[in-house]
Amino acid sequence: MEKTLVIIKPGAIQRELVGEVISRFERKGLQLCGFKMIQLTDEVLAEHYAHLAHKPFFKRIKEGMMITPVIVCCLKGIDAVHIVHQMAGKTNGREAVQGTIRGDFSVSVQENIVHTSDSLDTAEIELNRFFKPEEIFEYKQNNFGFLYANDEF
Ligand code: ADP
Questions:
Q1: For 98-108, how does the pLDDT look when each residue is reduced to its tens digit (9 = 90+)?
Q2: What is the C-alpha separation between 49 and 13, in angstroms, rounded?
């Protein structure tokens, strides 16, 4: 089973979309294994967005992520990284397909509601960045037998 990271960004907190976003992942069948509100810092954002350090909007996106606390989530399931990334949609909310989170709730490149890990390797690094091991929980999912067929896990 894969685990992946979602960050519910300040824009979603302000627009009161936290329940909507979490509900989509729950309804899909992903298991919530970690969930907490944190205040991001310039230091952790510089690491998280290091691949964008050369961009003119680097400072702006870091500032935007610190305007309010964010919610970080760990979601688990078969192919969870791919599923969650697909459910977020393209970076630019104006181009993201309807039915995706960004397609349904964003009209912006920067203000795009969620961050999701883009690969299995990234997910591991990002989960370690935002969660202590004891903040990620293993527990039995009661509806498991109705989410997957026996030969799928
Ligand atoms: P994604 O979040 O889709 O994986 P990136 O890693 O490329 O995309 O970018 C990280 C975040 O930086 C985006 O989610 C978005 O909030 C912001 N961002 C990316 N490109 C731009 C841009 N051209 N202008 C403003 N903000 C941007």
A1: 999 999 999 99
A2: 20
Which tokens in the block code for residue 11? 């824009």
Work out the average pLDDT over 121-142.
Answer: 97
Range list of H helices, 49-100: 58-64, 80-88
Q: Separation of 51 CA from ligand 1 center, angstroms? A: 10
Is any atom of ligand 1 closer than 6 Å to the C-beta of 78?
no
Scored b (16 or more CB within 10 A) or e, 99-109 reads ebbbbbbbeee
Domains located in the chain, CATH noted: 2-38+68-147 (3.30.70.141)
- The closest-lying atom of ligand 1 relative to the alpha carbon of residue 88 is 3
CB of 104 within 6 A of ligand 1: the answer is: no
**pLDDT, tens only, 28-60:** 999 999 999 999 999 999 999 999 999 999 999
Cβ of residue 91 lying under 6 Å from some atom of ligand 1:
yes
Check residue 6 and give its pLDDT: 99
